[in-house]
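4.2 Preliminary Data

To establish feasibility before requesting continued support, the project team ran the inverse folding procedure on a target of 312 residues. The structure was first converted into the token representation described in Section 3, and no sequence information of any kind was made available to the design step. The complete token record follows.
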């Protein structure tokens, strides 16, 4: 007997930790600082979105095995913020035999949606959730904070990055990989022990790929006006010839993939390509929607109206 009933994998309830309370960029605190978050109308500093990516690793490894860490893609739209102390659970729809894409999502304990996403296995991913969202974007109206950005603009230079176990990841990410592994919701010996890893080397957890891709982003010198406060609204991490290894040097190239706007935000979507140290072989890629809060930029309305210059 066979059925076409959709079956769902679910993980346990987890309480992810907030590790960005001391984050600093552009000379000011970030939205992850409680006082800054409250000033902007949020009840507390939220946990960074990609922290939740770890929740999906056991589910997707169950579906696609080791290949998930080599060719997997998680493409997510963030829906609601999570505050430290709240419980979150990940879900994945079981795909049909041989299928390379499925729907995944995360919810708080009370059912509040945290994120919606597609998960897929390359090289034939099909349209990911964010590729579909990009295709539906309307051209933005006049921009203020992002007025000097253009689609296709590239970073000022390639960036050389690495992640060692005890390397402090800077002002944007004031912690090390080992400090993250001490509190990560889903740990694995693959992240810290060469003898346990199928690749003979520790691999970087999916949520920390975001850190690897972002901690040097100031070197891109994209002309975003500020000070202004932003958050991650959409994020896709894709392994092409992975995984990424702890202690390995990589080269990053960045490009503005899209510009968009909502009632509250101006957004720039950055495609970050991660190559081996030679810059010849692409290992992974991240697409990230930086949503900048309009009301966090002094003089925004006046600048938009053209009646006064924005505050310095």
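Position-by-position output of the design step:
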């Amino acid at each position: 007997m066979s059925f076409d009933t959709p079956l769902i994998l679910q993980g346990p309830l987890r309480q992810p930790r907030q590790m960005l309370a001391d984050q600093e960029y552009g000379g000011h605190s970030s939205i992850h600082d409680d006082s800054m978050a409250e000033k902007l109308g949020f009840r507390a500093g939220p946990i960074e979105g990609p922290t939740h990516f770890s929740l999906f690793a056991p589910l997707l490894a169950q579906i696609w095995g080791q290949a998930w860490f080599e060719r997997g893609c998680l493409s997510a739209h963030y829906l609601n913020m999570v505050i430290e102390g709240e419980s979150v659970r990940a879900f994945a729809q079981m795909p049909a035999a041989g299928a390379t894409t499925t729907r995944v999502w995360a919810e708080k304990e009370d059912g509040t949606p945290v994120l919606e996403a597609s998960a897929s296995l390359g090289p034939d991913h099909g349209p990911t959730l964010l590729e579909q969202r990009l295709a539906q974007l309307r051209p933005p109206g006049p921009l203020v904070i992002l007025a000097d950005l253009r689609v296709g603009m590239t970073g000022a230079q390639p960036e050389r990055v690495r992640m060692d176990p005890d390397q402090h990841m800077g002002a944007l990410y004031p912690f090390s990989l080992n400090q993250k592994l001490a509190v990560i919701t889903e740990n694995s010996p693959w992240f810290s022990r060469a003898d346990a890893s199928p690749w003979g080397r520790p691999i970087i957890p999916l949520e920390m790929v975001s850190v690897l891709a972002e901690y040097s982003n100031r070197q891109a010198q994209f002309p975003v006006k500020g000070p202004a406060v932003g958050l991650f609204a959409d994020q896709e991490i894709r392994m092409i010839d992975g995984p990424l290894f702890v202690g390995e040097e990589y080269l990053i190239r960045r490009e503005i993939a899209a510009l968009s706007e909502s009632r509250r935000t101006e957004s720039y979507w950055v495609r970050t390509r991660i190559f081996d140290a030679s810059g010849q072989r692409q290992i992974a890629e991240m697409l990230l929607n930086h949503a900048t809060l309009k009301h966090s930029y002094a003089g925004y309305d006046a600048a938009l109206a053209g009646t006064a210059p924005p505050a310095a």
